[in-house]
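Need residues for this backbone.
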């Protein structure tokens, strides 16, 4: 697993033991192995730690109580983020144990929405390097940089170029907070060992003028590279990864809409890869829709869907919905005709020129739109689309806070008994609507899921849980299933399988008033079930390396690491 340690099993009782060559301060400074005050006396003596730690040997629970108390003493979410990051940098087992025990409380801190603020402040709160920073000036040395990876044999890589961080735009090197946070969730949610993960930031400059003018900015202080130079750099990176880490799963994260889909299409058949903003978002949204349809007693093939926003997330969501509709007998053309996109210029229709490929695929015939008699056929507003179409599902991915106005929502609710409304933009400040407003404007009838976490809504004496349409329900299980099955590629059908597995775990199957998504406390069992579905689909479609379903289940369980201290012994000289 690592050049500094290896995991073995005691031949007598099967106990897991870690053998390490590290001793003294080097061991205490190595976060994957450091136990801090929990090192027992015999290990302190054997590993050269005597006198380097206070004499009391803490139990795991004592350690957790101490750390959690310090965490609760922090006054702001950003301070909590910094505290947890520092803990991760000195003792990863304690970090993952703590977050796992408080997953609903801490997941919003280590990822959305707080990670957005952390990425914005990255150069000002920077403490210690984690992962790899591959900058454009080193474009001819990429393999050398990859060889310097702190985790030399990664199974999962998350990479970003920092251009479209959540709904916050180009944050340059500050985007590194995203791969770090995503990989932490791989471990918390699916048990993938942190020693097998690698965050990467591709630093190709930034178009953010404030960052370029900030004297504390720690990225490459240069305008963002684009065009052929950018593409050549990405190509060199992929070539390096396929040579250095040929068996790794690579996840693209927070690339701009101009690059995300085309890079995925370009490389998806050259290595095992997926884009979470496109495919993960599509799968988790489809799962929420399937759960909502269970409440309405309808079918997905009967829905009319409006998406505000036509970027990477909308592309993934649309593709997943089309696949699900086709599984119920619709043709591809019929399924696409049920999906209506609204971008910054209004409704996407055939009368508009210079549409991107994805928008052309979903452009509605202008003749259908003309029947509504909009004020301006070239710029048909969201309100006009809702008034003319009477959608059953409304999804927001445009990062336009407040875009789902009272007028729009009341109009939708006037033609749908249980309107499905998903304001998905992150972070919280970019959400298209507040859940409390959606519930109020629809008199408690809306089925709501959000991109960021929101509190329960009390309406007419009943408490309505707001499910978070969180990609963490999908991508960790996806990664676990891919790794365990030794899948050579990630297919679209694997994401559909993941979505259906998640939908089956929705609490609405037991109580129609419940959240559309399982509680975050159940995310580890959710990830296991998603992994089983993904691995099974990989096996069925012929891209898996494992032989039988029984072997897949054993391999999945074997891959799910539990953050707990095990016995150490020094490697024999």
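Answer:
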């Amino acid at each position: 697993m690592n050049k500094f340690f290896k995991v073995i099993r005691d031949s007598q009782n099967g106990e897991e033991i870690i053998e390490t060559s590290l001793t003294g301060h080097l061991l205490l400074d190595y976060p994957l192995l450091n136990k801090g005050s929990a090192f027992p006396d015999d290990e302190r003596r054997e590993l050269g730690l005597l006198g380097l730690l206070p004499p009391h040997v803490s139990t795991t629970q004592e350690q957790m109580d101490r750390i959690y108390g310090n965490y609760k003493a922090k006054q702001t979410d950003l301070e909590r983020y910094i505290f947890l990051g520092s803990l991760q940098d000195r003792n990863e087992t304690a970090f993952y144990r703590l977050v796992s025990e408080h997953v609903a409380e801490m997941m919003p801190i280590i990822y959305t929405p707080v990670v957005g603020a952390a990425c914005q402040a990255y150069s000002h709160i920077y403490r210690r390097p984690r992962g790899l920073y591959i900058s454009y000036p080193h474009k001819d040395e990429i393999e050398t940089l990859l060889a310097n990876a702190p985790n030399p044999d990664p199974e999962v890589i998350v990479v970003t170029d920092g251009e479209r961080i959540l709904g916050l735009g180009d944050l340059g090197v500050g985007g590194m907070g995203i791969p770090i946070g995503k990989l932490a969730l791989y471990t918390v949610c699916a048990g993938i060992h942190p020693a097998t993960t690698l965050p990467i930031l591709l630093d190709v400059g930034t178009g953010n003028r404030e960052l370029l003018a900030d004297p504390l900015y720690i990225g490459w202080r240069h305008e963002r590279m684009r065009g052929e130079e950018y593409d050549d750099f990405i190509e060199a990176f992929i070539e390096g990864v396929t040579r250095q880490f040929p068996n790794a799963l690579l996840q693209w994260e927070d690339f701009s809409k101009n690059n995300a889909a085309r890079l995925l299409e370009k490389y998806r058949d050259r290595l095992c890869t997926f884009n979470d903003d496109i495919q993960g978002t599509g799968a988790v949204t489809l799962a929420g829709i399937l759960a909502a349809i269970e409440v309405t007693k309808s079918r997905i093939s009967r829905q009319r869907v409006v998406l505000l926003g036509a970027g990477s997330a909308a592309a993934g969501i649309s593709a997943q919905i089309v696949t699900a509709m086709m599984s119920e007998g619709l043709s591809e053309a019929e399924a696409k005709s049920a999906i209506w996109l609204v971008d910054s210029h209004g409704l996407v229709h055939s009368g508009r020129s210079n549409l991107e490929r994805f928008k052309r695929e979903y452009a509605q015939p202008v003749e259908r739109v003309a029947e509504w008699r909009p004020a301006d056929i070239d710029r048909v507003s969201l309100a006009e689309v809702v008034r003319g179409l009477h959608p059953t599902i409304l999804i927001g991915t445009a990062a336009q806070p407040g875009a789902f106005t009272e007028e729009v929502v009341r109009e939708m609710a006037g033609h749908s008994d249980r309107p499905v409304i998903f304001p998905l933009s992150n972070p919280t400040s970019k959400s298209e609507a507040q859940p409390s407003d959606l519930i109020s404007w629809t008199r408690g009838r809306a089925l709501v899921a959000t991109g960021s976490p929101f509190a329960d809504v009390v309406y007419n004496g009943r408490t309505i849980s707001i499910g978070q349409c969180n990609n963490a329900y999908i991508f960790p299980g996806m990664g676990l299933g891919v790794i365990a099955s030794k899948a050579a590629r990630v297919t679209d059908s694997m994401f559909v399988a993941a979505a259906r597995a998640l939908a089956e775990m929705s609490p609405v199957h037991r109580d129609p008033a419940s959240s559309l998504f399982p509680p975050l406390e159940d995310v580890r069992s959710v990830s296991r079930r998603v992994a089983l579905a993904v691995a099974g689909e990989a096996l069925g479609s012929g891209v898996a390396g494992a032989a039988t379903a029984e072997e897949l289940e054993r391999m999945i369980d074997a891959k799910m690491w539990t953050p707990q201290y095990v016995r150490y012994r020094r490697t024999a000289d």
